Amino acid sequence: MRGAADANPDPPPPAAGVRAVLDGIPLALRMIVYGVSFLALMLGLLPYAASRLDVLYPACHVELPTALRVAGGALFAAAFAIYVWSSLLLSYHGRGAYVEFDPPRQLVTTGPFSWCRNPIAACVVLMLLGLGLAWPSTGILLLAVIAVPIAHAQVVLLEEPLLRKRFGATFDLHAARVPRWLPRPPRSP
User: In 3D, which of 135, 77, 87 has the Cα closest to residue 111?
Assistant: First the structure.
């Protein structure tokens, strides 16, 4: 007589790797989860925490003229639009996300990526700057200043070496033609 444990004699398949699990989730859904989570942290939680500096130390708060606040709002909106455009290009053309554990499978060199190698990181810093001006908040402005070397280190020490490993000479050619941070019009190949 067979027991319930003997009903399925085949052992379960081995656990799928992270890549297999991620590939089982539609890319659009992954991008929404990554994007919302990342933006909630970078444009919600961290700026809120940084803005507490103005509350705790009112003497460090600086009021900005309305024109500068409007310019900050415009900067934020423009950077956000380029961020979204860059993210969509990575999903559509790169067939992947912008996180290193779920990277694009193709190197994207069009759109904002033809003007600057790191438009997503640059846009995050610009969004923080725009937010700090539009709010206005000394704490958020300091956060934007601190974000510059952190973004640079992340790109130089993590992102670009992984792109070079993943895409080889194709990335090297792109890096030779397109600046890392300061955008300029695309050059001919």
Answer: 87
Integer Cα distance of 33 and 29 in angstroms: 6
pLDDT tens readout for residues 89-102: 988 888 777 677 77
Does the global pTM surpass 0.70?
yes
From 27, 186, 24, select the one nearest 104 (Cα to Cα). Answer: 27
Look up residue 111 and give its DSSP letter. G
- pLDDT reading at 22 higher than 80: no
DSSP string over 72-85: HHHHHHHHHHHHHH
**Spatial distance between the Cα atoms of 136 and 51, rounded to a whole number of angstroms:** 9
> What is the C-alpha separation between 155 and 149, in angstroms, rounded?
10
3-state helix, strand and coil shares in percent for the chain, rounded to the nearest 5: 70, 0, 30
Among the residues of 9-118, which ranges form H helices?
A: 18-23, 27-40, 46-56, 66-92
d(CA 134, CA 83): 18
